[in-house]
Amino acid sequence: MEEAGKLLGTALAIGLGAIGPGIGIGIIGGKALEALGRNPEAESVVRTNMILGIAFAEAVAIYALVISLIIKFT
Amino acid sequence: MLHISIKAEPIFRIFGFNITNSLLSSVTVLIIFILLSYFFASSMSKKKTKITLLILFILESMYSLFSSILKEKTRIFYPLLMTFFLFVLLSNWFGLIPGVGSITIREPVVAAEHVAENPVYVPLLRGSTADLNTTIAIALISVILIQYYGIKFVGLKGYLSKFVNFANPIGFFVGILELISEFSKIISFAFRLFGNIFAGEVLLVVIAFLIPILASFPFLLLEIFVGFIQALVFSMLTAIFINVAIIKHH
C-alpha cells in the first residue's frame, strides 16, 4: 500500500510539474520565432535570450523531477 | 536491476572522512583543468598549435558574450565567470565518459558481518555535478561573491539599503522580498544544475536498460548539449546577478 502511494506520488509530482514549464517553453519558443521573423538580423541575440528563458522555465520542471526522484529513491 | 542512487556513495575513508566517488571525480576534473591551463599558458609564448587556437577561440567568444552583459566591467569579472563556466562544463562532460558510473568497486562496509553474504558494489567515479554537495558548494561561492562585489562597488550602506528600507511600507516589503530572493538564488542555482545533470544520468541509465544497443547514442548527444547549456546558463546568470548587484540604485 505504501509502495503504491509512493509510485503514485512520483508520477503525479513529475506529471503535474511538467504542465507549466511545457506551456512556458512553448510560448518562449513561439515568441522567439516571431521575433526572428520580424527581425532576422537579431538572430544571435534572440537565440541567446531564448535559451536563457528556456533554461529558467525548464528549471521548474527539474525541481518537480528532483522532488519525484527524492520520493522514489528515499 | 537498475542502480540509481540520489546521493554520492563513499568509496574509502581518510581519518574518518568519507571520500565519495563524486569528490574523487571532482579532483580528477580539477587536475585535468590545471594541466590544460598549464599547457595553454606555456604554449602561448611558443608556436601556437591547433588546440591552443581552439581554446583561444572559446575564450574570446565567451568574452564577447559576457561583455554584452557586463559592458566595460567585463575585465574584472571575466576570470571568475570563465572559471565557473569551464569547471561546470568539464564536470558535466566528465560524467558522460564511458566507464564513469559503470566501473564499480566493492563498498567498504563498516559492519563486517554483512559483507560476506551480499557485498554492495558502488561506482568508482560519478559525475561531480550529479551530486548535490558539489552544486550547492558552487552556488554558495557564486551567491557570496555576488554579495561581496555588490558591497565593494556600491558601498556597504548603499548595498544594505536595498534590503532594509524604512522610508515607506512598500519599500520595506520589497526589501524583504529582495532578501528572500537572495536565498532562493542559492537553491535555484544548486537544484537547476544538479537536477539537469542527475536527470540526464538517470535517462541514460534507463534507456540503456530498455534497449542495450545504440539507442542511448542520440541521448548521449543530447546530454553533451545539455551539459554545455547548463554551464553557459550558470555563468550567464552569475554575470547577470553581478551586473544587477553592482548598479547603484536610487
From TrEMBL, chain A:
Membrane topology: Multi-pass membrane protein
Pfam families reported in the protein's UniProt record: ATP-synt_C
Role summary: Key component of the F(0) channel; it plays a direct role in translocation across the membrane. A homomeric c-ring of between 10-14 subunits forms the central stalk rotor element with the F(1) delta and epsilon subunits.
Cellular component aspect of the GO annotation: plasma membrane; proton-transporting ATP synthase complex; proton-transporting two-sector ATPase complex, proton-transporting domain
Family that this chain belongs to: Belongs to the ATPase C chain family.
ATP-binding among keywords: no
Subcellular location: Cell membrane; Membrane
InterPro entries for this protein: ATP_synth_csu_bac/chlpt, ATP_synth_F0_csu, ATP_synth_F0_csu_DDCD_BS, ATP_synth_F0_csu_sf, ATPase_proteolipid_c-like_dom, F/V-ATP_Csub_sf
Keywords, sorted A to Z: ATP synthesis, Cell membrane, CF(0), Hydrogen ion transport, Ion transport, Lipid-binding, Membrane, Transmembrane, Transmembrane helix, Transport
Transmembrane segments: 7-30, 50-71
Domain of life according to the entry: Bacteria
Residues the UniProt record annotates as site (Reversibly protonated during proton transport): E58
GO molecular function, one term: proton-transporting ATP synthase activity, rotational mechanism
Occurrences of domain V-ATPase proteolipid subunit C-like (ranges): 8-71
Protein name from the UniProt record: ATP synthase subunit c
UniProtKB/TrEMBL annotation, chain B:
Annotated transmembrane regions: 23-41, 53-70, 76-96, 132-151, 193-214, 220-246
GO cellular component terms given for this protein: plasma membrane; proton-transporting ATP synthase complex
Location(s) in or outside the cell: Cell membrane; Membrane
Domain of life, source organism: Bacteria
UniProt entry tagged with the keyword Membrane: yes
GO biological process: proton motive force-driven plasma membrane ATP synthesis
GO molecular function: proton-transporting ATP synthase activity, rotational mechanism
Keyword terms: ATP synthesis, Cell membrane, CF(0), Hydrogen ion transport, Ion transport, Membrane, Transmembrane, Transmembrane helix, Transport
Membrane topology: Multi-pass membrane protein
Function: Key component of the proton channel; it plays a direct role in the translocation of protons across the membrane.
HAMAP family associated with the record: ATP_synth_a_bact (MF_01393)
Protein name, UniProt field: ATP synthase subunit a
Organism: Candidatus Roizmanbacteria bacterium RIFCSPLOWO2_02_FULL_38_10
